[in-house]
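thought: fold this chain, then report.
action: predict
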Amino acid sequence: MKGKVSMATRKELVAAVCSRYRGASRKEKIAILDEFVAVTGYHRKHALRLLWREPEEARTPSQRRCVYDEAVRQALTMLWEAADRVCGKRLKALLPTLIEAMQRHGHIDLDPKVREALLQVSAVLSR
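observation:
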């Protein structure tokens, strides 16, 4: 019967066996794992990981927190455009000089908090 079980059936089987496996004693776990491997055709280590994994319904998608506010993003975009869309590493190195020059010539007027955030921005900016 190895390899004859469809993916939908395997997922249903994982859901059914998972809670039983977690609550079992060591000897029961060995028997449950042996049976599960025989029915699904999974490699033993993969089956073990599946049975210990958190059920999909219980998982919540992780969301990244916003590091920079909208004012910092807009100012950074403007500076990036002024620097001819240079790469992040070079923009990071150029920011102190660029900010000072653009403020001196009246092209931008930055709030001190935004200026400080821009000077500490990472070379790899994530949204």
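thought: worth noting. The radius of gyration is 27 Å.
final: tokens above.
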